[in-house]
Design goal:
Blueprint (H helix, E strand, L loop, with lengths): L11 H11 L2 H7 L16 H4 L12 E3 L7 H17 L2 E5 L5 H15 L3 H5 L10 E4 L14 E8 L13 H25 L6 H4 L6 E8 L9 E6 L5 E6 L5 E5 L2 E4 L7 E5 L1 H6 L9 E4 L6 E8 L9 E2 L17 E2 H11 L7 H4 L2
Helix pairs in contact: 4-7, 5-7
């Protein structure tokens, strides 16, 4: 296999440290004109079967849900709630259009992240950090030293609510659009929380009253073109740690969800945003809603850019405890999970890294 070498001449920890110390991420490798990807990115042989599961064997498609008219037309709203319910209970993934965020804002957000990643290396290095207390940080692979294999992507993370950073803490290339996008996607998030509450058969403010709507973090990924995309991934198989994620992706594609043991492509749709249920919402819905495994393929073309808004407090101090919603339980439907705080859940999720068993199993009764 290309680039593997022998066990005796490979010091993985040393190679990881050298990569991290460069503070230039995957883009730095591409800029240095690497012909073969470093061994830290190459998937182990046992993962190759899973990597190559044929997505063409299934005709299943992720639904695209039109939110037009849900605030004015009660009949239309019921239709949308039913579609959201069906999607949340099956794959946990759907796309939304007519969501209220102007297309210009979406495009400017993608452009801002491209500008950040393609600016002068020395300027970008100032943001490189693994300090989880920093509200704005850039790095490559949050789980670099925990995962079996590194992923072919760089990431800018910005904690935007409930306590946003000072504007000057945000990188200049994406500062203004990051603040605007944060405001717009938060408004959409509030709408989605209401639809999801209704989809659970609860009052539309139920999830909001539980405090689920208070925090969000914007995690923007940059996937440079990969010289050997068949040997690595953009993001390993994982589920998200939050209540739900709103994902803006560019036109390149590569996002897939695992459905009935087949990888299903989630193709970019002009103006659409991808919504996926996270682990915390599966936990409080007592498995009614599904937090599905998904991944991103590496690609010869690029860079691919995506912007994920995670609705949760992330690692911000929060002592509120979450367990299965009592209104969803009965003698016949007992609680499946023990209570946890968001902080505890995300800390455990991050400690194990991507891949492997879902973090939810750690909290299952």
């Amino acid at each position: 296999m290309v680039g593997l070498g022998s066990v005796s001449d490979y010091d993985r920890r040393k190679e990881l440290q050298e990569f991290d110390d460069s503070k230039t991420g995957v883009k730095g490798l591409v800029d240095s004109k690497v012909g073969n990807i470093p061994r830290i990115f190459i998937r182990p042989p046992e993962e190759f079967h899973e990597m190559t599961l044929d997505s063409n064997q299934t005709h299943f498609q992720i639904p695209v849900i039109d939110l037009q008219g849900i605030h004015e037309d009660s009949v239309r709203r019921v239709e949308v709630v039913n579609r959201v319910k069906e999607a949340a209970e099956t794959t946990g993934f759907f796309q939304v259009v007519n969501h209220g965020i102007p297309l210009t804002v979406l495009e400017q957000m993608l452009q801002g992240i491209r500008r950040f990643n393609e600016q002068e290396t020395q300027v970008k290095k100032q943001y490189y950090s693994r300090d989880i207390t920093r509200k704005v940080r850039f790095n490559s692979n949050f789980d670099l030293f925990k995962s079996k294999t590194a992923n072919w992507r760089d990431t800018l993370l910005c904690v935007m609510a409930p306590h946003p950073p000072n504007p000057e803490e945000l990188p200049l290339p994406c500062r203004e659009i990051m603040m605007e996008y944060s405001k717009q996607v938060n408004n959409l998030g509030l709408t989605l929380f209401k639809l999801l509450s209704e989809a659970l058969g609860l009052n539309h403010n139920h999830l909001g009253d539980m405090g689920c709507t208070e925090g969000h973090v914007i995690i923007s990924h940059y996937y440079p073109a990969c010289p050997e995309p068949d040997l690595t991934l953009g993001i390993s198989k994982h589920s998200d740690s939050d209540f739900f994620t709103v994902l803006l992706q560019d036109s390149i594609g590569g996002l897939q969800v695992l459905h009935q043991n087949q990888w299903v492509d989630i193709p970019p749709v002009d103006g659409a945003l991808v919504i996926n249920i996270g682990d915390l919402l599966q936990l409080i819905s007592n498995d009614r809603f599904k937090s599905s495994q998904h991944r991103v393929l590496a690609n010869y073309v690029g860079p691919r850019v995506s912007v994920a808004c995670f609705f949760c407090m992330h690692l911000q101090p929060c002592e509120r405890k979450y367990g299965p919603i009592k209104e969803l339980l009965s003698e016949d439907i007992p609680a499946l999970y023990r209570e946890t705080t968001e902080t505890q859940f995300v800390a455990y999720y991050n400690s194990k890294g991507l891949g492997g068993q879902s973090a939810l199993e750690h909290f299952r009764l």
